[in-house]
Amino acid sequence: VQARVEAVKTGRAVVEQETKLLGEEMVERLRSAERFKLSLLIRDQVDLGRDIQGIQALMDEVAARGNAESMIEFLAKEKHLRDRCELLVRKPFKQAIEVQADDYEQEARAYKDLAKKYRALQELVGVKDTIITQLLQDRAVLEKKVQQQQQEGEEAQDAEEQPVGEGEAEANDDDDDDNEEEGQEGEEAEAEAESEGEEEKEEEPESSSAVPSDKEDGGTEAEAGAGA
Q1: Where is the composition biased (Acidic residues) (predicted)?
Q2: Is 63 part of a structural domain of the chain?
Q3: 179-to-111, 122, 176, 189 alpha-carbon distances in Å
Q4: Residue-range definition of the domain harbouring residue 143
């Protein structure tokens, strides 16, 4: 706990130092703007004072010439006085003060507004993070449902295809059995045909041997007829 107390004090000191430095920088910029404004005003004041002094000097000189002892002495300076009067009349005098007293940059107010906007943005970011998290969770649930549906569909398709495959296998087995039976029957028929052929071959010699006996009988009968 004591360590945390020291850490809190240290953190406060760091923030305080940064705040003081920032405040001093703001005050220095404010004073710099003030010095610039004052320098402009002082320059205008000096120019106006110089013009006023020139006018006052001319008035004093005219008054002094008015006290001249002779008109000739006064007229001797008349051209000089007239030139100075024309110069003062033609010279433009500043009638408006350009420097404003209320156009200082309100940095403290700007920082305060930024702090308010920052807090508002933090709240907005928090709401956005909550919405994004909810959307991600919803997407995960939907993906899981889709995967389950796909798996169920594949299982159903496999279940439908399996009986068909077994029926085809049984049909193929029956065809094979029929082919085997037909082959056996064909072999038996061939064997019977071969046995019959052999029997016929065996009977042919007997029939051929029987033919000469008939001929002999015929010859005997012929001889008997001739004797008769």
Answers
A1: 152-206
A2: yes
A3: 98, 84, 5, 15
A4: 109-199
